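Worked example 2:
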Amino acid sequence: MSTSPREGGGASKDHRRDRPSHELLAELQIHQVELEMQNQELRETQASLEDARQRYFQLFDLSPAGFLVIDSDRRIREVNQTAAQLLGAPPAQLRTEFFRKHVPAGERETLGRVLARVLDDGESAREECRLRDTEGRSLTVRIDASPVGADGGRSLGLLALVDVTAEKRATRRLEQVFELAPDPMVVLDLDGTIRMVSPSTERMSGYDTPDLLGTRLPDLIHQQDRTRVELELSRLASGLAGSRFDARFVGRGGECRTLSWSGMPAREDKLLYLTGHDITRRLEDEERLRRSEALLNNAQRIARMGTWEYEVRGRHLRWSGQTHRIFGVSAEGLNHDLRNFLSMVIPEDRDRLGRALQRAREGESTLDVEYRIQRPDGDFRTIFQRGEVYRDETGRPLRLVGMVMDITERRALEDRLLRSQKLESIGRLAGGIAHDFNNFLTVILSSTEVKLRELPKGDPLRNEFQEVHEAAERAARLTAQLLAFGRRQVMRPRTLDLAEVVAETLSMLKRLLGDHIGIETRIDTSQTGVLADRSQLEQVVSNLVLNARDAMPNGGIVEITLDRFVVPGGEDADLDQPSPGTYLRLSIRDEGMGMEEVVRRRIFEPFFTTKQLGQGTGLGLATVYGIVRQNGGHISVESSPGEGTCFTVLLPEAEGEDPSPSA
């Protein structure tokens, strides 16, 4: 039997009424707890949604990019704070006036193209366009647009606006720098491939830009510099700071230009920026300057002349390299101080030099002074110094600039010239007197010889005439020496064997030399012919050997050498040097006490002697000097105290004739 709904429902109620009340209460509490839990979950979900919504709006508003949400009706739904700040208008105003006030007419087509692609085609897009802010200033923005769903049947798009105005200006400035840069500029990939060049690079290289783009820079560098460039580019590509380096760029026509390169990496762009300054002209100028300096230094060295500069206030002295060489000191070995310089000047000249410098500082415009120095190696040199004084507007001296010249050899040459002229004058005087005096002696000798033949041997007057005759003979020998010194002696020249003359003269002198004097000879007999008067040669050898004996009162060795000697031509003439040609060289050296320089300089003067009174006339060496010069030869002497003396005689070699046998 079926039960009706009414009945069934009544039965259910009856069933609940039939359940105990405590069971119903427990079930009610359970449902209440479940409902409370569901409410709590709902509240937590709403709170999370609100937090997410707040975070979304914070991210949306505070994003560094300006955001616009636009629907397919081209209405702006949302504007973030960054976009509002970028365009200088509140979000509400931008929602209604963005397209009218902030999009220039010339940019609406670009923006419309972006919106159509995003809202109509559902694709992302990127463009750059110009916008205006509220005050009318132009902004360049990059727009990144993408679809973000739909709302109410209308598709939505998100436009992200990034202000690239500063970046575009910087890029433009860089482009202007590239266009206007006088020095070549290149932009390279990390492997050195050229991506961008400045117009100046074209002008320098002769290449057009298309020819350069895609070419590796090292391939345009001189082969000898290529490894260095590769190394520097590798350093830049690895992020290391680049150093300046020089390398030669080979142009289209093969000509080389030396550039001083410097570079900087842009790692984020994976590019290298290089600029090169053309230093070709500077290097050429430096090379010309080096050659000029080398020429000047060589000229100063040859002329024994250097330059100097003295700063009065700083008391600093600067010397050129040649000046250091003249004074015998290195640049490191000299404290460039005036007192240090003056300490090298010998005491006898120091005050005079100091007074000359003082006069220059006090008013004289030039400085000319000669002084002697002693170099660190002990050598004495004679210096001529000339300079000019530079002053300020008040007349106070600022610096002295000038030159120094080593005139030691010139002074020695002048001294030799004076001695030569002196000997020449004395010789002419002595020769003239001796010639006239010899005429008188001829009369006396002739008269006394006649009387001696007439007077018998026992006559008392005979002894008196004999004494007069002997005195006249001694006087005649003296005049003969004077005539020889004055080169006015009558010569009977013939070709002689000088080795034979020396040997025979030494044989005759053995008795006069004594046992305490030894003779050593080294004579080259291969070619010993000279054109001379035999008696004169014997007199030269005798005087020099006996002079060596007298220099060794305690005994010693006289060393005699004879050889052939050639004086080369093409050298600067020296008044105290023999003429170019072939000579026989006779050297006579003793082991005596030697002589001081002051004695050596006067040794050939007539009547000059260092012997005691009555032991010499002072004409022996003067006679030798006269005979040698009369025969076209040359004589010199070397001597130092305690080192002995060496006389060297050069006689022209006879040509074309065999020596005559000895008489």
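The chain is about 45% helix and 25% strand. The radius of gyration is 59 Å.
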